[in-house]
Amino acid sequence: MSKPMMDFSRRSNMQITMLKSGVMVLHLFFPEKIYFIKADCLRKGELFVDNAFPPNSNSLGDVSGLSEVKWLRPAPAYCTDGMSRFDFAQGSLGNCWFLSAMSALTFQKNLMEQVVPMDQSFEDYAGIFHFRFWRFGKWVDVVIDDYLPTINKQFLSVSSKCQNEFWAPLLEKAYAKVCGSYADMHGGSSSDAFKDFTGGLYHCHDFKKPNAPSHDELWLTLSRATECKSLICSMTGEEDKLANTGLADGHGYSVTGITEVNSRAVRLVRVMNPWGAGEWNGKWSDKSDMWDKVEPEVRKMCFDRDDGEFWMEFEDFCSHFREVTICSETPNFLDGDFKCQWKCMIYDGSWVAGISAGGKWDEPTFATNPQYRIQVSVIDKEEPEDKNVLVSLMQKPLQEHHSWCGKPPPLLKDGRLGSEFFNTNSTVKRPTRYQGFIEVIQLYSLEPGEYVIVPFTYEPNITADFVLTVYTKADAKIR
């Protein structure tokens, strides 16, 4: 059983320590360099060995309880008949969060081929492969060799159900390199993988919070997300009621479909276990007699096979799972406005101690933080409360951060707003609590006018880089 996914703050703190200590070293390549390396290996008659992520214990990391690990190159085959969620199964590492996200990714061919380039195979084999991830505002190529860790000739981590396809364990290795080691993938959040797979937006729905959406609201959200071709993952709780249900506690699953049957009286959710086995055994499960009560065409949706994928009634899903994470390339899934074309603007910025790292809003140095002006000129008059601006702030390295949005007076001489303005004007949105999230996302309904966005860290005088992404539904300019 995989361990529960840990929260954002723990993962942020872990990665910050790694970056400061120099443990995380990620060797990135430009595509043209990848092909040069491969051609050089072919000319020399050698197989590529990635010295930045070598086939030894350093790349494996602190994985307890393992011995006699051997790194082996797979038999030649990369992808023979397309990439499917049924191609792989989780191994001994607790990275269900990553594999469930990977399972969801297989439904979106264009995104899948962005992450897993198909212009590579075991033809002209040189032992070198590359994958692409969205890292802090840019798509980067991550190169690996094809040495994979095994015990008794069995894959240590994700395994391929097809004996001649190895895209899944190679993709996992590339992401282990991004994380630092295989051990560093033990515990995480699907939202992190979603971000690195898409560069898009994610939203988490926690069923247990006091302000959790109703079942009807959540169903509407899932319907919108499905229509927008979003990636969806879910996670079970750790409650006793999971006993004898076939569900693992504290475990990540992917949501692979939703439907309504019996004239829409029954809502069903299709769920996939990254183990490749182990399924729900309640109502509407593979062996449930509920399928005998529906039309033959509906009955075809049920496959009685132990492949890890199953249907369950939506009410049971809400009862046994504790959260759902949805990710899409655009914000359309948030409000169901599928016709809207959002405009996206991405900016790299920095906080510099003593210069532009002013800390949170009540610090006397707050006004020294970076400032971005946004001019909203048009709104949807038919929807006066329409959410028309979305702000995302991601910090490098990962620490506590938030964004602040307020409406400014005319520009100062240097284009910046001073402390007096922030001390005497109210805000459109200001955080009331601070957590070590990897990314902060805020959705606003802004009237026409000029606004300022101020990214900041909780403590002043912390030097770090950040990526600010602004999506606008209305016409807008940023400076």
UniProtKB/TrEMBL annotation:
GO terms for molecular function: calcium-dependent cysteine-type endopeptidase activity. The keyword Protease applies. One of its GO terms (cellular component) is cytoplasm. Residues 47-330 form the Calpain catalytic domain. It holds the Pfam family Peptidase_C2. It comes from the Eukaryota. InterPro entries: Calpain_cysteine_protease, Calpain_domain_III, Calpain_III, Calpain_III_sf, Papain-like_cys_pep_sf, Pept_cys_AS, Peptidase_C2_calpain_cat. Keywords: Hydrolase, Protease, Thiol protease. The active site is at residues 96, 251, 273. One of its GO terms (biological process) is proteolysis. Belongs to the peptidase C2 family. This is Calpain catalytic domain-containing protein.
